[in-house]
TrEMBL record:
One of its GO terms (cellular component) is lysosomal membrane. This is LITAF domain-containing protein. Belongs to the CDIP1/LITAF family. Residues 56-139 form the LITAF domain. The lineage of its organism: Eukaryota, Metazoa, Ecdysozoa, Arthropoda, Hexapoda. The keyword Membrane applies. The chain crosses the membrane at residues 94-116. It comes from Aphis gossypii. Its main location: membrane.
């Protein structure tokens, strides 16, 4: 005589039926921001990356001839043309210093002499073609 058993309890748990599996919550992939699946999200780009090229313009310095109190002929480093420099004379700071000293000493008449003397004047050389400053001659 077999003990009466509950057949339903002894049976291994049956796999869920077809209708159960359809009702089960479906797996949804993580989708932040409601981005349409299947379309790869492309960040806004500014076109393909451009290789940065550093162009180094090497200009060989033009050796300047020694500048004197007179105009000299040289190649302008700016416009690279053979020019004769334009001279602008200006009184150097030494001239103003001597002028002040003479004024303090009392030689009012002589005080303006250093400003008139060529030995106290700087000669600014500039290009007559492009007007760029080339150099200065200090006596
Ligand atoms: Zn020039």
């Amino acid at each position: 005589m077999y003990p009466q058993v509950n057949k339903e309890q002894n049976l291994p748990s049956a796999p869920p039926s077809y209708s159960d599996s359809m009702n089960a919550p479906k797996y949804e992939p993580y989708n932040p921001g409601n981005i349409p699946i299947g379309h790869s999200y492309n960040a806004p780009t500014m076109g393909p990356p451009q290789p940065t090229r550093v162009i180094v313009v090497q200009t060989e310095p033009i050796p300047l001839p020694p500048l004197g109190p007179k105009s000299v002929q040289l190649t302008c480093p700016t416009c690279r043309s053979l020019v004769t420099t334009r001279i602008e004379e200006e009184s150097s700071s030494t001239a103003y210093l001597c002028c002040m000293l003479l004024f303090i000493v009392g030689c009012f008449v002589c005080s303006c002499l250093p400003l008139c003397m060529d030995n106290f004047k700087n000669c600014k050389h500039s290009c007559p073609s492009c007007g760029s400053f080339i150099g200065i001659y200090k006596p």
